[in-house]
TrEMBL record:
Source superkingdom: Bacteria
Family, per entry: Belongs to the ABC transporter superfamily.
Protein name in the entry: ABC-2 type transport system ATP-binding protein
Signal sequence, start to end: none
InterPro entries: AAA+_ATPase, ABC_transporter-like_ATP-bd, ABC_transporter-like_CS, P-loop_NTPase
Annotated PANTHER family: ABC TRANSPORTER, ATP-BINDING PROTEIN
GO molecular function, one term: ATP hydrolysis activity
Length: 325
């Protein structure tokens, strides 16, 4: 889309390769938040690489939103530290927050004002937006989230999905170095969800770092480059999505006309395998694919198809959260 090219010029510094000191867009150390005797977040070390799209996953009550609120300086941690775009929070919040767009726990706007009027008020408070550019920035943000036709309707008459769109528009009024979205597809229909996915892809294309909290694992798998999995206030895993999925059990799925002979041949040679979905599933943690296929060929077992598989995000999420239960 044209906005990708337009924004690339405006955020050139963001798209450039980060210096060693600026590898992370957000980082926490020993971050902790307690309410009475309850630890909502129990000492996590979160690292969000610059330019990445990071999905924060976790069951309800796992501490996702509390962590995001501390990252943005909305609440103070009980212990630990937060660094955002190279600046310590909350002490340097005024220097860094204008570079951050956020939609957290649903948008809050004036109910008797229209969507456009609400955005104009938000835009007037943007330190990096010149007065003469406010109206065009608002129009572009409304167009981008698909609210142009409803821009002059009162906010109180908006559906949940429309309210989410307006909140996202406010986060995108100016180019940002970091965009934080807490359940951005809440209340959206499938078409709206696809549009949010497209916006995230556009942000990623121009080098913007995106942090997304979501319970929709399929959406995270489709849009994110990295994931962080939280459970009961702790961080149980974080890293590149591909690497984490690979760690969940690389395997080979082999289609053959003789499952029994194939299974016997593999096990006779010390290769872990089982029958799954009318195919042989072979664990690749201690053997490589060529050796597996060579073993079957030597045993005169015909191989019709072989494809490399890996655990899906749903499997990985279930394994991580169950292990920590």
């Amino acid at each position: 889309m044209t906005e990708v090219a337009d924004q690339a010029e405006q955020v050139g510094a963001v798209a450039a390769a980060p210096t060693p000191v600026e590898v992370y867009a957000a980082r926490t150390s020993g971050l902790r938040k307690t309410y009475g005797d309850t630890a909502a977040v129990a000492g996590i070390d979160l690292a969000v690489p610059r330019g990445a799209v990071v999905g924060v996953l976790g069951p309800n009550g796992s501490g996702k939103t509390t962590t995001i609120r501390m990252l943005l300086g909305l609440i103070r941690p009980t212990a630990g530290s937060v660094e955002l775009l190279g600046h310590a929070l909350p002490d340097e919040a005024d220097r860094v927050l204008p570079k951050v767009g956020a939609l957290v726990e649903g948008p809050g706007f004036h109910p008797f004002l229209s969507g456009r009027e609400n955005l104009l008020r938000c835009a007037a408070m943007e330190p990096n937006l010149a007065s003469q550019d406010i109206r065009s920035a608002v129009d572009e943000a409304l167009r981008r989230v698909g609210l142009t036709a409803a821009a002059d309707r009162r906010f109180r008459g908006y559906s949940l999905g429309m309210k989410q769109r307006l909140g996202l528009a406010a986060a995108l009024l100016v180019p940002r170095e970091l965009v934080v979205l807490d359940e951005p597809t809440n209340g959206l229909d499938p078409a709206g969800t696809r549009e949010i996915r497209q916006i995230i892809a556009e942000l990623h294309a121009v080098g913007t770092t995106v942090l997304v909290s979501s319970h929709l694992l399929a959406e995270v798998e489709a849009t994110c480059t990295h994931v962080a999995v939280m459970h009961r206030g702790t961080l149980v895993a974080q890293g590149g999505l591909a690497e984490l999925l690979e760690s969940g059990g690389p395997h080979l799925m082999i289609s053959t006309s003789d499952l029994t002979a194939g299974l016997d041949a593999l096990r006779d040679n010390g290769i872990s395998a089982r029958v799954e979905q009318q195919a042989l599933r072979v664990d690749l943690s201690e053997v490589d694919a060529p050796e597996v296929l060579a073993t079957l060929v030597r045993a005169d077992v015909g191989v019709h198809e072989a494809r490399r598989g890996r655990a899906g995000l749903e499997d990985l999420f279930a394994r991580l959260t169950e292990e920590e239960s």
